[in-house]
Amino acid sequence: MQFPRLFLVRQHFPDHRIPDVAAEVQRQLHNSGFAARLKPGARVAIGVGSRGIANMATITRAAAQYWISQGMHPFVFPAMGSHGAATAEGQADVLAHYGIIEQTIGCPVRSSLDVVPLGKTPQGIQTYMDRNAYESDGVLLAGRVKWHTDFNGKIESGLFKMIAIGLGKFAGAQHYHTYAYKLGLENTVRAIGRTVLESGKILGGLAILEDANHNTAKLEAVPAEGMEQREEELLALAKSWMGHIPMDLDLLIVDEIGKNVSGAGMDTKVVNRSVLGDYNPWPDAPRIERIFVRDLSDLTYNSAVGIGMADITTDRLVNRIDWASTRVNSLTASTPSAIRTPIHFPTDRECLEAIAPTVGKFDIREVTIGWIRNSLELSQFAMSENLRPSIERNPMLEIVSPEREIEFDAAGNLVPLDGAPAHEHAVPALVSSHV
């Protein structure tokens, strides 16, 4: 089968990176007034989530050092619902894989699934808080503000969701998603967040925003009072920085999916899929006709949440799946369709040869192809030569290599991502070879 040739493309996003992330964390917390609300020697709980946030260990360490400098006794706890297979050990292991351990952060890490029931929302939703956090003198949540993969709203994924799903742990996450099935996740998160804030335990949050290059672009200490409105404003800013696949594609090749990449495994608003299986539900995203997912990220602990959005995958991915953790996370979120197993074949070559003819084109050389590492890293990727006119019309795009044939190795798999000019494993390294 003769596929179109590919070349490497660089997408030039604005660079909003913060030069000194640790210093900015210290500056934000110093100016927040949070420490003035506590007595010297107070125990401060720093809640950290499970996403692959850039510089998360640096941010957490800087926050811990700030509290220590103020005479406080901080500790870190996993602010996660069902991640890490919904076990205390698993959630601590998630943090450890991001470099968040006592030896590097400089304060204890305390992981538990025990929760304390708080009050009920006006809708009758019982709210919960991680027991370690509740028994502290104050809670600071460090989380990324960004769009959510399941819905559009003024508040999506961020501090309020962390207050609800993260602080509620596994017990809360199950309970809340059941309500969200009818009330909608945004309404549920807002209602729970307001009730938890009424407990007086939350000092505030350290909002983290990233630019399209996955750089830490903004850090802001947000007090509990006024958090709801400020998060709406921060989400609007984060959305304005969002990275996109720049055009419609017949076939998108994705090297890896994982919980560290997106809560849905791959960002639904990038690949234009719904966790419920809908094709192209987001009108502002490019149309993607077929998705081929090659493997799982090494940092997803073999959770395959999101594989249900793919049209085809490899046997090696399917054989890696930890079904216990995958089922727990999917069923807790009430999204069983997100883990449906697609068609799978032993090799990449077989996958491509099976899926390429399904896009309505008789000549496979006319199939438009994009090839990304994952839905988070979109500054460099491969695209097929038949997209050249569209690429050359886009001032944000630059072709950075000659056209080359797709190469398969002796085992029938696409060549690895080594040798990429921008970032190791960031884009496919294409070697000239006839297919």
Would you kindly provide a written description of the structure presented here, covering whatever features stand out?
- The protein has 13 helices and 15 strands.
- The termini are close together.
- The radius of gyration is 22 Å and the shape is globular.
- The longest helix is centred in the middle third of the chain and has 25 residues, at 159-183.
- Helix 1 (21-32) packs across helix 2 (56-69) and helix 6 (159-183) packs across helix 7.
- It is 30% helix and 20% strand.
- The strands form three sheets. It has an eight-stranded mixed β-sheet. Strands 3-2-6-7-8 form a five-stranded mixed β-sheet, with helices on both faces.
- A hairpin with a 7-residue loop joins strand 13 and strand 14.
- With 435 residues, it is an alpha/beta fold.
- The protein has two domains: 6-13 and 243-399, no CATH class; 21-240, 3-Layer(aba) Sandwich (Rossmann fold).
